[in-house]
Design goal:
single chain; 220 residues; alpha+beta; Immunoglobulin-like; 2 domains; five-stranded mixed beta sheet; four-stranded mixed beta sheet; 7 helices; 32% helix; globular; binds copper (II) ion
Length: 220
Amino acid sequence: MRSELSGRETTAVIAATEKWLESFDIRKPEDAHHLLEGLWVYQQHNVLNRDLLKKLLNSPEAHARLAAQRVQYMWDHNKSAPGPAPVDEQVNAAPTPPEGAIVLRTVIEKMKYDVESFTVAAGSPVKLWFYNPDYMPHNLVIGQPGSAESIGPAAEAMGADGFNKAFVPEHDQVLVASKLLMHKEAELIEFTAPTKPGKYDFLCTFPGHWKLMRGTMIVE
Ligand SMILES: [Cu+2]
């Protein structure tokens, strides 16, 4: 399930993460999701940071402790995913999407979206409801046809600045971008579909995700 990153990319991403994490305090509940973002970067790049893990296992935030437990299982058992989440967790994680919205969700511990493609009418207003039941953070970036191969690396190269910008790079082929959604967060994204029909790329640009986590917005 792990995307293939070169050693050089991993070193740069981990160094940026380490630096960024220095500004947060594990005792502050409001810092928990930032520290978790950092933990998931380590997890995704297969670099163990037991010190950060231990801190998050004792976080004042329940969702951060839960996410840290998932990471602990993976690290203790040398796995990339701890298996399906408890059923009650999945059932509870089902808020109702707004009426008339296209629905796009992440799949728990699969590093993918629940649909490979969705279709919109050219030039029409679109309401897209994006929901993240997964434990790790994800975003949704929609770009021009064929742009994933360029937007993905641009996000990876953002370094510590990426955390402050939801890992959305300044890139002329980015059309629409969500926030970085943590466990059980949702966002209603409203935009106007491109007027030119085609197959537009969508992807998650959290470090290490884009090679696996992507799909197609069909404009017709
Ligand atoms: Cu992702």
